[in-house]
Design brief:
Helix content: 55-70%
Number of helices: 9
Low-confidence stretches: 1-6, 189-205
Mean pLDDT: 73
Number of domains: 2
Largest sheet: none
Shape: elongated
Order of helices and strands: HHHHHHHHH
Structural class: mainly alpha
Length: 205
């Protein structure tokens, strides 16, 4: 999916901020080559003026206006973003690298849990480290009754990351199971809306 026209969605996890920044030029390049193609048609058929063809100066003027507008919108987005996150829009750091950085450099356990909110693909490279961290941390958090270690946080922990069945049972109460079911139901409802749309588009194609 191309989010070029959705500035708020231009922050990637799979690629990098620098990659998304280059997408800014994609529509401008397309407009340029489109104008060159129209000019080519005009030159190739000098005796037949195409109804849909625009004069070259009109096309270039449109490109300039749209280009300036898009750059202004992007600049406004960067201006409104919190200062500490601005660098992520031009960084070459990928989603995997970012998750690794958060997990290994976070000073608090609650911050490390942010990693588990992402797709497993982004943290599978250091999954064993997460397992060891959870095995050592869960008993402590339960004993201390850490306020941040609530049902929502417990529900983020995949069963596969807890090797001890007894320890897993301690964090899988009815309330946690309810959160997991609700999350699963929410994902299913979203998928139900997306899949028919994709299928319909494929059928039409």
């Amino acid at each position: 999916m191309d989010f070029t026209g959705m500035l708020q969605a231009l922050h990637p996890y799979e690629m990098s901020g620098a990659y998304s920044f280059t997408l800014l030029t994609t529509p401008l390049i397309g407009l340029y080559f489109g104008s060159r193609y129209i000019t080519f048609i005009e030159d190739f058929e000098p005796n037949e003026r195409l109804d849909f063809a625009f004069a070259s100066d009109q096309v270039y003027y449109t490109i300039a206006i749209l280009g300036e507008l898009q750059i202004c919108c992007y600049a406004l987005l960067i201006r409104l973003v919190d200062n500490k996150y601005r660098w992520t829009f031009v960084s070459t750091m990928t989603g995997k690298q970012y998750c690794s950085k958060v997990f290994h450099e976070a000073s608090e356990d609650v911050s490390k849990f942010e990693v588990l909110a992402n797709n497993r693909f982004l943290w599978k490279d250091f999954e064993e480290e997460i397992k060891e961290w959870l095995s050592a941390g869960i008993p402590t958090w339960l004993a201390e009754e850490a306020e941040w270690f609530d049902d929502a946080v417990k529900a983020q922990i995949p069963d596969s990351l807890v090797d001890d069945p007894a320890l897993l049972l301690k964090i899988r109460g009815q309330s946690v199971a309810r959160v997991i079911r609700n999350n699963s139901r929410r994902r299913s409802s979203i998928a139900a809306m997306i899949v028919p749309t994709i299928a319909g588009t494929t059928a039409e194609g």
